[in-house]
Specification:
This protein is mostly helical. The protein is built from 11 helices and 6 strands. GO terms for molecular function: calcium ion binding; homoserine O-acetyltransferase activity; serine O-acetyltransferase activity.
Amino acid sequence: NRLVIGENFMIEQYIKHQGTKWATSRAFDPNSLIWMSTAMDNFTLEEVVPETGEVSLEYGMRHITQPALVIGVQTDVLFPCWQQREIAQVLRKIGNNRVSYYELDSIFGHDTFLLNTVAVGGAVKGHLEQEPNGASHLHMDAARSASILLGALWNREFSVESMERLFYALDARNLGRVSIDEVSSLLYLVVLRMGEYCDNMTLEEIVRYIKSQDKDNDGMLTKDEFLSLELSRVCSRIEG
């Protein structure tokens, strides 16, 4: 019998058919792989510092304040260990004191996170266990913030005291500032939850308004900037 690739078994015929269809179909543009590769090669977390014009990794990562797990694999040539170590070091330098870094020795290279589930799973487990209550407090912080915000919007209670209480709930790490993205996302979720009792504002509109209060354009709101928010503009309860 003559051995011909793609014709010996039904599965080969199926794969050959699908491969031909994929390569010749208008739905597939080979250039898409080039674009994906180029985008990955040129991606950076760095941002330009407005005051100096310098490109800074620290400035680009300044909003990452949540607990972070960074894993490096010694045989990974796509995302080498030195880059993972740098990310962990920068996070700690900008004030994030809840950063875990694991460096794994594996023969699987970049595919380690898919194939070496024991090592990767152990790293994730260790990271979660070093958080108080197994990181469950992170969800509790968000729930508490949402509860306070929901109460303020529903009761139209936007006093300085209630706004301060909400600020401190959002600023669980006592940084003296809160992320615009976090405030916007939380506010949008609460607005959706209130449904007919709130104006139908989009997330983009909410973000745009909150950013207008960010006087130094650093993506964060200080306490004074947060207190200047007029939440009644975001959600007006329908009376009657």
